[in-house]
What we know:
With 469 residues, the protein is α+β, with helices and mostly antiparallel strands. 40% of the residues lie in helices and 22% in strands. The chain has helices at 58-63, 84-92, 95-118, 129-142, 146-159, 166-178, 244-249, 273-279, 282-305, 310-324, 341-347, 353-364, 380-413, 457-460; strands at residues 4-9, 14-16, 25-31, 33-37, 49-51, 55-56, 70-73, 77-83, 188-190, 193-196, 201-203, 211-226, 229-236, 241-242, 256-269, 335-337, 368-371, 374-377, 465-467.
Amino acid sequence: MSDTKKSLFKKGAYVYVEGDEDVDDVFIVERGAVELVTENKKIKRYKPLVTDGEIFGFITALIRRPRMESAVALKDTVVVSVNRSRFIYLVQQNPEIAIKIIRYFAEELRLYDEMMFSLKETDSSMVPEELKLFNVGEYYFKAKVYKYAFYVLSRYTELYPNGIEIDSARMMIEEMTKSGVKKLPEPVKSGVYKLFPDGQMIFCENEPGEELYIIKEGKVKITKVSDNNEILLSVLREGDIFGELAIVSEKPRNASAISIGRTALLPIRKETLSWVLSKSPGIINKIFMAISQRIWFTYLNLEAKLYNKPITRVYAIAENRLLQDNVSLKSKEPVVMNLSIEELLRAAGVSGNAKDQTAGLLLEDTNLEFNFGQLTIRNPSILLSRANFYKSRDMMHTQAEAAAPKEKQKRETAPMPEEEPIDLDIGESSPSRSSEGASDSSMPGQDNFEEPVDIDEDLKLPSQEINID
C-alpha cells in the first residue's frame, strides 16, 4: 500500500467525518479549500479554513484518536493524503517545518484552554500579564502554600520591579521570610540534567518560558489556578515532555509545573531547539504526541461542558472517558471505570437542584451500574446512542432559542391575519410533546432502548472522492 495518495473531492464532499475512527492519514490541500466544522457550533475553531499547501487532520492521526471535526470540500479540491508514519518521517527530516507545526499546535491549545477557563471566570483577556502572575502568587499566599507563593512572588518582583502590585508582593515575601520561609534552592545540576526535590515549583503560570523539559526520572504535576482554585491538569511521567508551548509561541507559561518526588529533567533551551531537533529527530515525535494528546483531551472536555443541559454534559463526559481509555464507542463489551456517580456529576459541573435530578436519570439507565466508586458501562455503543440523543436534543433546543427573537420580531411586524374558523377536530391522535419543551427525563424508555443500528457509510456522506494518482 502506498504511503501517499492524491484525490479530488468534489464540492460538498467529506474528506472525513467527526468521530471517524479511521485516522491513519494526514491531509494536505494541494489545490482548493477545505472547511473544518463541528456539530457543536459553540466551539470556535483555531483555523476553520484550510487552503493551498496547508495541513489538516494531523492531531488525531498522530495520536490515533477519533476525528475532532468534519472536513468538507468548499469547492472541487485536490487533497494529498499521507500515511501517519511517513508524515512523521518527513517532518523529522526538516526541523524548521516541525517548529512551525509545534507553534500551530501551541496556538490551538491556547485557544481551547482560554475557552475552557472562560467558562468559570470573567474575561481575563484585559488583565495585564503582570497582574495575572501576581494573582497566582497571592492565591498561594492566602492558601498558606508558602513555598509556591514565595517562588511566584519572587518571580513577580524580578520581572516587574516597578509593577502595580510590587509593594504588596514585597510585603508578602517579607512576611513569609519572618515566618521562616527561605528562598527556594536552585535545582542541582548533574551533567546535562537538572535535579528537583519533591514538591518544588519548576516554573509557574504567567512567567516567561525559556526551556522545555523531558522527564528522565520522577513525575511532574501540571496545575493551573482558576476561579480561586488550583486545578490539576495532568501528571507526567518518565519520557514525557512539558513546557514546550511557551518556547515556541513567545507567550508566557499557561500552567505551573511542580515536581513529585525526586525528579530529573533534561532542559532544552529555546535558542537550541532547532539544533536539538536536527540531531535527535525522535524528540519531534515526542513533542507532537504530547501536544496532540493535550489538544484532543482539552477539546473533548470543552465540548462536553458547552452543552446546556446537565444530563447532556454527563453523558458527553462519560463518552469522553471511554475515548481517553482507548475504548471504541462502537464496542459492545462491558467496560469498568474507576468513576463514581459523584465524580461524574462534578466533572460535568452539575450542582444544586439539577444534581439530584441528573443522578436519578443516571440510576434509571439500565446500561450503567454504579457500585463502590466504579462505573460499569454494559454496552459502550448504547451509551454512544444515548449521548447522541441528548446532544441532538440539546442543540435543537439551542437553535430554537436562537431563532425565537427573530420569530417574535417577525410576528410583531407581520400584518394581522383575518380570523379563520377554529377547527376543533383533532382526530384520534394526541399532539406529541416537542423536544424544545421536553424535560431531561424525555429519553426513550430506558429498558427498551434499541441497540444501535450499523449504517452504511455511503448513505451518510457524499461519496465524491476521485483517485487521481
